[in-house]
Amino acid sequence: MSGLKILVSYHKPSTLLKNSIFVPIHLGRSLVGKVSKDETDEIFDNEWMSSNMIGDNTGDNISHKNRELCELTAVYWAWKNLNRLDNPDYIGFMHYRRHLCFNSNCEENVDNAGLIYSQFINDEYIHKYGLSEKNINAVVKGKDIIVGEKIDVTRLGNNTNYDHYCNAVPGILHIEDYESVLKIVERLYPEYSYSIREYNSSRYAYFANIFIMKKEIFVKYADWLFSIISEAEKVIDLSNYNIQEVRALAYISEWLFGIWYTQFKKNKGYNHLELKRTFVHDTNYNVYLNKILPAFKNNNVPIVMSCDKNYVNYLGVAISSIFKHSDKLHNYDILILHNDISLTQQKEILSISNSSNHSIRFIKIANLLSHEIQQKFFLIGHFSHAVYYRLFIPQLFEYYDKVIYIDTDLVLNKDISELYDTELSTEFLLAAVKDIDMIRLTTTKEQQDFSWSHYVSSTLKLHNVRNYFNSGVLLFNIKQMIAENTIRAFFDTLERVGSPILVDQDILNIVCENRVKFIDTRWNVTYQTPICDKNWKNNLPCYVLNDYIQARNDPYIIHYAGCIKPWQDPSNGLTSYFWLNARDTIFYERILYQNLENKVKANEVKAKITLKELMSYRDTRAKYFYYKVLSKIVWGKKRKRYKEKRNMFREKISRVRKLLKETVSFYTK
């Protein structure tokens, strides 16, 4: 079969369905820059949509009426501009989140609204619901019209389609508008009188303006529909309607389609088919069916970062520091891996720079995060799922030779293009900086309860702990990683280790052992060592200590690794670099407010705990003396256990006494 085009309507950046059949169309493109109920009038949204789909504002069009007519502006555009679609034999319409299910063997039950729900669009979704070009062509072949499966409105609490219009969206749909349009239909097309009554009294409905028709049938339908809409616009007063109510004619068009289809089925000799419909919950733009290509043809410096919605403020500071130390000879291609950063947050990040040699793109990777894969993500402490996203880098960036990866909890003090210029032969999978703190941990006298040396050598099975690297700043050799299928090695290793203490960093170290090009420590100066260990200078080998001190005195990248961040305690060394960069961004005040709020909440929790301890002070003292006595009259394991109990209650007593002392001091000043 030849000549099938299905227009897929979009009004904001979303996962694209785009191939020789699916034609994405931007609704209301002529309204760019005007207020939208969806807040999609930003530069980023419209530039992305302009580069990825056609608009409904070319040729003969009613794009300017999209706020009132919704997807009908696409139907009108197709009706008047079929030549721009190469005059297809069939024309169809679907929405960015509502699709026809072309899998005739699909046994999934629909809900009361006649829908099958999916989380997002990925290869599994395409296969499951038969949305491949070959399958769609096979289903459509020989049909005159295909529509979404009828739904039973009694399952929605209504007796008839007329009742459903009265009750579907209370306060938004006004029955007098619908009745006015029905009078227009009877006046223009009196032969439809019986079909109007039949459909309105029926319990079965056809909604959403989703269908595929032969071109000749579609042209007749569009001529019928828009002749009615044109007359209805003259009699329905929208002037005092709110942003939802002004869509009255768009809603009514769904009932009109049901009336038209009821009339159409009376014709003999036509082959029609009804298909189930799907609904996609998460349609935010992601990498599905979109090759991630370099943003610039020449002098492209790709910088990959990983973030979640809770770290966006710090992401903004990091990116600002990149641009502050960039030059005009290079182009900076920033790609942010995420799963939950909202469009509003994305726009705030995009506002950081308008320079022509800066590009920022958000890559939503939800479709890669199957439940099975996420179950493998071991988390501990302050780590989130986002730390594991860098394991997908070789798969995502196959059209790059190499990419830089940097964490979000850092700032730059030098042009990052110099790091990108590091040469990587096939001998190396990546370039990195040795982890100073791991050297300290494995050099320091071992604690009785845990040995880092034993963990690295026995659990991770690394041969030389001194070559353990920090994964906060990496240069990936993408070509070599793809050639060796390291992503498979990453996840096989993750499954074997099970619970890596330093999460994906441990996995990267195992897979890339002996394949790392070690670079200048200044490219990843981790600041936490003096915070974690007051005796740090005595716990590092001399050659490591000297190199680390020199790097701290002239850092290229200051990495705020560890659980104590500069926004939590600005008194630590190297934090001034963060605050100098933060002050130049829109995120500065937010960081201050957010951490002040967190401090207040923490104090409230602490106060509740202290009050509870105060109320149970007598009981705590009694238990302390009880275990103190027992620890003196028994031996062996019991004595050790009683000593631990005694010490625990002694600490509680000390905390309460300190609180009482502070309270008395406050009121006697």
Task: Please describe what this structure looks like.
By secondary structure, this protein is of the alpha/beta class. The chain folds into three domains: 4-280; 300-584, Alpha-Beta Complex (Spore Coat Polysaccharide Biosynthesis Protein SpsA, Chain A); 591-667. The protein has 26 helices and 22 strands. The strands form five sheets. It has a seven-stranded mixed sheet, sandwiched between helices. Strands 15-14-13-16-19-18-20 form a seven-stranded mixed sheet, with helices on both faces. Strand 2 (22-26), helix 1 (43-52) and strand 3 form a beta-alpha-beta unit. Helix 8 packs across helix 10. The longest helix has 32 residues, at 636-667. The protein is elongated, with a radius of gyration of 32 Å. The model has no long low-confidence stretch (mean pLDDT 87).
What key phrases describe this protein's structure?
26 helices; alpha/beta; 7-stranded mixed sheet; 669 residues; Spore Coat Polysaccharide Biosynthesis Protein SpsA, Chain A
- Briefly, what CATH class of the largest domain? Alpha Beta
Give the overall average pLDDT.
87
Tell me, briefly, the overall form: elongated
**Helix/sheet category:** alpha/beta
Number of DSSP helical runs? 26
Largest sheet: 7 strands, mixed
- Please tell me how large the radius of gyration is: 32 Å
Beta-strand proportion: 5-15%
User: How are the strands of the largest sheet arranged?
Assistant: 3-2-1-4-10-7-11
Low-confidence stretches: none
Helix % is 40-55%
| Count of the domains | 3
